[in-house]
UniProtKB/TrEMBL annotation:
InterPro entries tied to this protein: Cyt_P450, Cyt_P450_CS, Cyt_P450_E_grp-I, Cyt_P450_sf, Cytochrome_P450_Monoox
UniProt superkingdom: Eukaryota
Keyword Metal-binding found: yes
UniProt GO molecular function: alkane 1-monooxygenase activity; arachidonate monooxygenase activity; heme binding; iron ion binding
Pfam families: p450
The protein, known as: Cytochrome P450 4A4
Family to which this protein belongs: Belongs to the cytochrome P450 family.
Presence of keyword Oxidoreductase: yes
Species of provenance: Fukomys damarensis
Compartments, as annotated in UniProt: Endoplasmic reticulum membrane; Microsome membrane
GO BP term, example: kidney development
Cofactor(s) the protein needs: heme
Binding site for heme: C457
Length: 510
């Protein structure tokens, strides 16, 4: 008769025996894991040995060095001491090599390394694998398919649409301003850019600026960016299960749900409008296909359409990238002009001389605003809306100074540090639009607000137009003054925002 080894009444000693075996196995596993971690750390240390950095704690990395919300400032201090690049240890074995030298940037952006999975995967439950996060052939296929949505013919009529959204915002500012209290502009500008992208890319009819859902979408986006920022820096929240059980994980889930409800509604509405191909023909006759039409009617080379999942990812990606980056850009530009009244006045005079008494602003006007464009670029140098982007090296790299990094290392291209690097931009904190005068010379990779290479920003032209329209129309209506008691503190939250908001005094011009 067979006797079960698990029968506790017959073999009282066997339970403790099993426990002993289990403990031994657990211990061996632990030792194995510790050895693995140790060896990986040794490998990492060797990999970055040519790149000195401040001493770091074996578990907490450089956490001590980076005081809360002083990251950007700290990186500038490092850049002074450690030229071109410097490893930053996040925790244990988590390491990225920060780079801020134009020659280094050129090398990395000239390759086709994938986006750093460890970092971008934390964003994926929200924006999915759309153009921003995709890699390889699928990215290429999507990029090729979506590029026509940013063709000159499509962008041209958007100038009037954006101008309309800007006027709505400025009308509201007229009602809100008073002599003695400044206005926090970031919120208002975000609503305006959300309104613009919804009207341009998604041909949405109603105004996002007066819609309550837009407010909750924006709040969800703000929460998601904060939560992702803190998760990247947390030791315990790396594990998906632990994170999903934590209060932050719950908040993240809720905010994703809210953001998706917003984009789902946009897709649903359009799908019901475009029930058949005849409808598409009608649209083609009356206007160019917008971004969402292209997504809905696109056929891949294999004849298949975008799956619902891919469609949703692209809509989530463009809804976010299409409004939050430009909101950051416009808000910081207005702040920079408020802080530099001479440049502000010169821009205003230029806009007045171009627009004269004309009621509307057009595509042709934008190219003539050369001084304002220089100011916009200078503001984007000091306050780049996207402060950094990351890549995971798919093969070893050797930089022009002979130093190299092996495959597998994550590099963070710190656009903010590059733009503030005194070796690249003398007196980097001085606002000097003439750095961008037509006859000025500079390194091809010293100014990268829209990144560079094949993964550069697909919405660059749309964004530049939107920023010009917003700044020009604002300057025609208001004089901008900074609030000396609340100097904005730039902090990286996927895009550059201000820790304490961006407060300006607005004076209505006669
Ligand atoms: C001032 C405004 C903007 C700035 C500074 C900006 C900056 C950037 C940067 C730095 C990247 C590279 C990201 C990376 O490598 O991880 C990027 C990519 C991207 N941007 Fe923008 N962006 C702006 C506006 C826009 C707008 C208005 C849209 C859409 C309408 C847009 C859509 C995208 C998309 C889809 C990508 C991914 C492109 C790809 O990988 O093929 N961006 N942007």
């Amino acid at each position: 008769m067979g006797i079960s080894a698990f029968n506790p009444t017959r073999f009282p000693g066997s339970i403790s025996g099993l426990l002993q075996v289990a403990s031994l196995l657990a211990l061996l596993l632990l030792l194995f894991k510790a050895a693995q971690l140790y060896l990986h750390r040794q490998w990492l240390l060797k990999a970055v040995q040519q790149f000195p950095c401040p001493p770091s704690h074996w578990l907490f990395g450089h956490k001590q060095e980076f005081q809360k919300d002083q990251e950007l400032q700290q990186m500038l201090k490092w850049a002074e001491k450690f030229p071109s690049a410097c490893p930053r240890w996040f925790r244990g074995n988590k390491l990225t090599v920060l780079i801020y030298n134009p020659d280094y940037m050129k090398v990395i952006l000239g390759r086709s390394d994938p986006k750093a999975h460890d970092i971008y995967k934390l964003v994926s439950p929200w924006i999915g694998y759309g153009l921003l996060l995709l890699n390889g052939p699928t990215w290429f296929q999507h990029r090729r398919m979506l590029t026509p949505a940013f063709h000159y013919d499509i962008l041209k009529p958007y100038v009037a649409v954006v101008a309309n959204s800007v006027q709505v915002m400025l009308d509201r500012w007229e009602q809100l301003i008073s002599e003695d209290s400044p206005l926090e502009i970031f919120q208002h500008v975000s609503l305006m850019t959300l309104d613009s992208i919804m009207k341009c890319a998604f041909s949405h009819k109603s105004s996002a600026q007066s819609d309550r859902n837009s407010h909750s979408y924006l709040q969800a986006i703000a929460d998601l960016k904060d939560l992702i920022f803190y998760r990247i820096r947390s030791i315990i929240h790396q594990n998906d299960i632990i994170y999903s059980l934590s209060s932050n994980g719950q908040l993240f889930k809720q905010a994703c749900k809210l953001a998706h409800e917003h984009t789902d509604q946009v897709i649903k509405q359009r799908k019901s409008q475009l029930q058949n191909e005849t409808e598409l023909e009608k649209i083609k006759r009356t206007r160019h296909l917008d971004f969402l039409d292209i997504l809905l009617f696109a056929k891949m080379e294999d004849g298949n359409s975008f799956s619902n999942k891919d469609l949703r990812a692209e809509v989530d990606t463009f809804m976010f990238e299409g409004h939050d980056t430009t909101a950051s850009g416009i808000s910081w530009i207005l702040y920079a002009l408020a802080a530099h009244p001479d440049h502000q006045q010169r821009c205003r005079e230029e806009v007045q001389s171009i627009l004269g008494d004309e009621a509307s602003i057009t595509w042709e006007h934008l190219d003539q605003m050369s001084y304002m464009t220089m100011c916009i670029k200078e503001a984007m140098r000091i306050y780049p809306p996207v402060p950094s982007v990351s890549r995971e090296l798919s093969k070893p790299v050797t930089f022009p100074d002979g130093r190299s990094l092996p495959k597998g290392i994550i590099v963070s291209l710190s656009i903010y540090t590059l733009h503030h690097n005194p070796k690249v931009w003398p007196n980097p904190e001085v606002f000097d639009p003439f750095r961008f005068a037509v006859d000025s010379t500079r390194h091809s990779h010293s100014f990268l607000p829209f990144s560079g290479g094949s993964r550069n920003c697909i919405g660059k032209q749309f964004a530049m137009n939107e920023m010009k329209v917003a700044v020009a129309l604002t300057l025609l209506r208001f004089e901008l003054l900074p609030d000396p008691t609340r100097t904005p503190l730039p902090v990286p939250r996927l895009v550059l925002k201000s820790k304490n908001g961006i407060y300006l005094y607005l004076r209505k011009l006669k």
